[in-house]
Amino acid sequence: MKSYIEKRAVDVAEFIISSNATVRETAKKFGISKSTVHKDVTERLVKINPNLAGEARRVLEINKSERHIRGGMATKEKYLHQHTRITKL
Protein backbone atom coordinates (compact mmCIF):
# COMPACT_ATOMS: atom_id res chain seq x y z
CA MET A 1 0.00 0.00 0.00
CA LYS A 2 1.29 3.47 -0.85
CA SER A 3 2.43 5.59 2.06
CA TYR A 4 0.08 8.49 1.30
CA ILE A 5 -2.90 6.12 1.50
CA GLU A 6 -1.70 4.78 4.85
CA LYS A 7 -1.24 8.33 6.15
CA ARG A 8 -4.71 9.33 4.92
CA ALA A 9 -6.28 6.30 6.59
CA VAL A 10 -4.67 7.23 9.91
CA ASP A 11 -5.63 10.91 9.51
CA VAL A 12 -9.21 9.99 8.65
CA ALA A 13 -9.51 7.76 11.71
CA GLU A 14 -8.01 10.36 14.02
CA PHE A 15 -10.42 12.99 12.67
CA ILE A 16 -13.41 10.69 13.16
CA ILE A 17 -12.38 9.89 16.72
CA SER A 18 -11.50 13.43 17.76
CA SER A 19 -14.63 15.08 16.37
CA ASN A 20 -17.17 12.22 16.41
CA ALA A 21 -17.56 12.90 12.70
CA THR A 22 -19.85 11.02 10.37
CA VAL A 23 -18.61 9.36 7.19
CA ARG A 24 -20.18 12.18 5.18
CA GLU A 25 -18.49 14.91 7.26
CA THR A 26 -15.16 13.12 7.03
CA ALA A 27 -15.42 12.65 3.27
CA LYS A 28 -16.16 16.35 2.81
CA LYS A 29 -13.26 17.39 5.07
CA PHE A 30 -10.71 15.23 3.22
CA GLY A 31 -12.15 15.65 -0.29
CA ILE A 32 -12.70 11.93 -0.80
CA SER A 33 -15.75 9.75 -1.32
CA LYS A 34 -17.79 8.21 1.47
CA SER A 35 -16.83 4.75 0.23
CA THR A 36 -13.14 5.66 0.45
CA VAL A 37 -13.61 6.79 4.06
CA HIS A 38 -15.37 3.52 4.83
CA LYS A 39 -12.70 1.44 3.08
CA ASP A 40 -9.89 3.35 4.83
CA VAL A 41 -11.38 2.64 8.26
CA THR A 42 -12.71 -0.89 7.78
CA GLU A 43 -10.05 -2.46 5.56
CA ARG A 44 -6.85 -0.46 5.22
CA LEU A 45 -6.51 0.80 8.77
CA VAL A 46 -6.99 -2.68 10.26
CA LYS A 47 -3.70 -3.68 8.64
CA ILE A 48 -1.91 -0.49 9.71
CA ASN A 49 -3.21 0.13 13.24
CA PRO A 50 -5.92 -2.27 14.49
CA ASN A 51 -6.49 -0.37 17.75
CA LEU A 52 -7.10 2.92 15.96
CA ALA A 53 -9.36 1.14 13.48
CA GLY A 54 -11.43 -0.27 16.34
CA GLU A 55 -11.87 3.14 17.95
CA ALA A 56 -12.89 4.76 14.67
CA ARG A 57 -15.27 1.93 13.91
CA ARG A 58 -16.97 2.38 17.30
CA VAL A 59 -17.60 6.06 16.57
CA LEU A 60 -18.98 5.22 13.14
CA GLU A 61 -21.26 2.54 14.61
CA ILE A 62 -22.68 5.06 17.09
CA ASN A 63 -23.23 7.54 14.27
CA LYS A 64 -24.89 4.84 12.19
CA SER A 65 -27.25 3.95 15.00
CA GLU A 66 -28.24 7.63 15.39
CA ARG A 67 -28.57 8.56 11.73
CA HIS A 68 -32.31 7.96 11.58
CA ILE A 69 -32.72 10.54 14.36
CA ARG A 70 -30.60 13.12 12.51
CA GLY A 71 -32.56 12.44 9.32
CA GLY A 72 -35.85 12.99 11.13
CA MET A 73 -34.59 16.24 12.63
CA ALA A 74 -33.45 17.45 9.20
CA THR A 75 -36.86 16.66 7.71
CA LYS A 76 -38.59 18.47 10.56
CA GLU A 77 -36.40 21.55 10.00
CA LYS A 78 -37.09 21.44 6.28
CA TYR A 79 -40.85 21.51 6.77
CA LEU A 80 -40.66 24.15 9.51
CA HIS A 81 -38.79 26.44 7.11
CA GLN A 82 -41.28 25.75 4.32
CA HIS A 83 -44.18 26.50 6.66
CA THR A 84 -42.51 29.76 7.77
CA ARG A 85 -42.08 30.88 4.16
CA ILE A 86 -45.70 30.11 3.33
CA THR A 87 -47.09 32.01 6.32
CA LYS A 88 -44.94 35.07 5.48
CA LEU A 89 -46.38 35.28 1.96
List keywords for this structure.
89 residues, mainly alpha, 89% helix, elongated
Description:
The structure is a single chain. The chain has 89 residues and is mainly alpha-helical. It has helices spanning 3-19, 23-30, 34-48, 50-88. α1 crosses α4 and α3 (34-48) packs antiparallel against α4 (50-88). The longest helix is centred in the last third of the chain and has 39 residues, at 50-88. The protein starts with a helix and ends with a helix. The model has no long low-confidence stretch (mean pLDDT 88).
Strand content: under 5%
The residue-averaged pLDDT reads 88
Order of helices and strands: HHHH
Number of helices: 4
Shape: elongated
**Termini, distance in Å?**
58 Å
Rounded to the nearest angstrom, the radius of gyration is 17 Å
Helical content (DSSP H or I, runs of 4+): over 70%
**What structural class do the secondary elements suggest?**
mainly alpha
Q: Low-confidence runs (pLDDT<50, min 5 residues)?
A: none
Please report the total strand number as a whole number.
Answer: 0
Question: How would you sum up the major sheet?
Answer: none
